[in-house]
Specification:
Blueprint (H helix, E strand, L loop, with lengths): L4 E5 L11 H10 L4 E8 L14 H14 L5 E9 L5 H10 L4 E5 L19 H18 L5 E2 L22 H13 L3 E5 L1 H4 L9 H9 L5 E4 L12 H10 L4 E6 L2 E6 L1
Parallel strand pairs: 1-2, 2-3, 3-4, 4-5, 5-6, 6-7
Antiparallel strand pairs: 8-9
Bound molecules: zinc ion (2 copies).
Length: about 270
């Protein structure tokens, strides 16, 4: 069955994307996506590489709600955000989320102690495993500080940028900490995003990869969303057929979309 929902898409409201929301919406509708959630970046205090990852929420809502109405016949548009978590930002995130009526909130980690694994310096002076472990530890620190979001984004994002990427990486190596993360997500009723950006980075797998998705299911996790993490229209719905199949193999019979922060089940 074709997956009709892409719940992780960027537009020119993100510091690393130049595609206007209109273009993303039109292209998504043209390829048969029925439920689209735009999730532009808010990464407060992002200091790496000179990119500014914040937008004005007022302007964002004004523009997207107008487009939601304008494209009503073609597509169901949801207004989301991808929050870049850092433990000390919890108050700021709380204020943002409570003063605006987002449909969907992704909690993601791009900065580990102010360093983004996207840049090679994150990996300098230590083993790849140590660098990966620090990323997972940082997830736990963030979940302890703030967890008012609907799904956790690209759980093993760090692997995209490792010197050997996923060549020596496995769930088994980090079983203890990954299980702890998954149990916490389930307890807090936070869903797991299956982010197909990993294919774009040549991993041949989504983030997180199959063993982790399977483990989430085994531990009782039910809420999964599909996200392409597209920053360009050609990546909308990228590899969703493949990942739909993978989710079925892991025992899932449905995935979720969100409106007003409420999960709605869609059959797989
Ligand atoms: Zn992200
Ligand atoms: Zn993203």
């Amino acid at each position: 069955m074709k997956i009709l929902a892409d719940y992780h898409v960027h537009t020119s409201f993100s510091g690393d994307c130049s595609i206007p929301p209109e273009t993303m919406i039109e292209k998504a509708a043209a390829q048969g996506i029925r439920h689209l959630c735009l999730t532009d970046h808010i990464d407060y205090d992002y200091t790496e590489g000179g990119t500014f990852f914040e937008f004005d929420p007022k302007e964002y809502f004004k523009r997207l709600l107008t487009l939601k109405e304008q494209y009503r016949e073609q597509i169901d548009l949801a207004v989301g955000v991808e929050l870049g978590l850092q433990p000390y930002l919890s108050k700021k995130h709380h204020n943002l989320i409570f003063s605006h009526s987002f449909d969907f909130v992704i909690g993601s980690i791009h900065l580990v102690h102010c360093k983004d694994p996207y840049f090679p310096s994150y990996f300098e002076g230590r083993s790849e495993d140590e660098a990966y472990l620090e990323y997972f530890e940082c997830i736990l620190q963030n979940l302890a500080a703030y967890s008012n979001f609907d799904v956790f984004g690209h759980l093993d994002y760090v692997v995209r940028y490792g010197p050997n990427q996923n060549r020596y990486y496995s769930y088994e190596k980090f079983r203890e900490i990954i299980d702890e993360i998954l149990r916490l997500l389930i307890k807090k009723e936070i869903g797991l995003e299956v982010n197909t950006g990993g294919y774009k980075y040549g991993l041949g797998m989504p983030n997180p990869y199959k063993a982790i998705i399977l483990r989430y299911r085994e531990l009782g996790g039910r809420i999964v969303t599909f996200g392409s993490d597209a920053h360009e229209p050609q990546y909308l719905g990228y590899k969703f057929d493949r990942v739909g199949k993978l989710l079925k193999e892991c025992g899932f019979t449905s995935y979720f979309i969100f409106h007003n922060r409420k999960p709605e089940e869609v059959g797989l």
